[in-house]
Amino acid sequence: MRIFIIASFVTCFINTTYAQPKSAFQRLHGTRVKTNIFLQWIEPAGKAPGKLEFRVDKDDTTDWNAVSEETLFNISNDRNNTISLFFKFYNPLRTSAKSTTTEIDDPVYTAINQWLSNLPSAEAEAAAAAAAPALASTKSIATKESALYESLPSNANLPSMESIILHEWVNEFLSKLDTTAFKTNNEQYRKLADSIDKYTKDIDQYLFEKITITFDQSAGFAAWIAEQQKKLYDCPSDYYQFKLALAEAGEVLTGLVNAQKRAEQSITALQTLLTEKYDTHIKPFIHEKNFQDYSKGASIWITLNTSDRMKSREENLQKFKAAIDKLNAFTKEFEGVKTGYRLESAPSFNWANTKMKKFDYAISALNKDGSVADKGNHTFSFTVAKDQRIVPFVSMGVFYTDFNYPNYAVKEGNGINTVEETDKTHVRVRPAAYLNFLIKTKGDLLYPFFQVGISTGANDVLFPVGFGAAIRDNFSISAGPIFGQRKELTKLKVGGEVADDAELKKDLSNKGFVSWYFSINYNFTKK
User: Fold this and answer.
1) Average pLDDT for residues 232-257, to the nearest whole number?
2) Pairing between β-strand 390-413 and β-strand 416-439 as defined by DSSP bridges
């Protein structure tokens, strides 16, 4: 008989029990944080995909670890459990990073409410275990977009012409030059020639030739911008190196803007020289009357030959400036509390807080044109919560107990009715809904826990209360007292006289009792 009872217990246990949920152990073993969480993005290299890594507290004293779906940070400090979340600088031309913060229910608090208000069935527990990663209802708090890519001007917008402004006019001027006037007014002629040389040089360099910005380097308008675009894109995700590259790009922008101003001023001055100042500066050396009309035509030709190019360069300079301004603004975000890191968030979890925060990052590797690289999309998630020494969770299980119900009957003998105790009804095996309190330990093998359960029968409610130990999330054993009520005799006594069955039933009343229970749980469904 005893073997049959044990076999029945094991069979019932296999079919109805569920081991302690993995999420409870994950909660206990989250990474503890006192002050800061630091994140850094590692770009894809070859066949290796990109990855998001983290450090905690002092960023220079701990190793970087990869963020995974199970990454959980437990916050513990005396500042309302407030920490700072930082993101290390990255090249925004190579990487787009967007983050979303969502509030989710903390199962530490919902487990108690669930057990008290909505006792789970075996089916509900199985469904909850299957859906464990999606913790409760969510509420979106904020979305932070860290993406930045501004297309710099492309070579297609920067035509390079080999023509030289005023080339034909100069040849015509020299062919009609009055040599006598040249000899007589040599100084005035030299000033005229120097002015024309300066004006045409400023215009030619900006529109058609190379522009000198540094002492040892000169390049065309398109080449200057293309080179800076390449340097910025190729710059490593290092705050200080990127600042230097950005400063150099700023110097190039300043040089191009200055060249633009010189060209604009020289176009105006050259047109004025060919028209309004013709009589005082050019006429003394040219005696042909039709040359003045020719000069006026050359002035119009200058406008026609430069306006489109000047407009195109102006548009590209504005794009270049806008890109640099945005990059400077982006870089400035990493110059706050800790240089080289941007403050992403400062989550706080005071004593009244019953929520956790889930952070989702969508990070993309970018091509030079700003498009997402092949297989360049990456997503990462982690959760931040209050540190807990004890983690409650709800489970379904069965227990074995020696509790029994006494049964009474009326015995008739020699014309006298007496109370007789018949065979007891033994409970043996019963299902129960448990509220377990898993206790944090230094190790990760054996976990003590306290549990309180509730088990409803046809005519009773039993409360097993005990202690146990769990071997990881595989196996647990618990035992302790079990409390409840059962109907027992009040005034009547076994062997005593009783009028009839009605009097016997009337005498029975609920009385409290204490017995013991024993429970074993094993995760037979573990994969």
Assistant:
1) 96
2) antiparallel
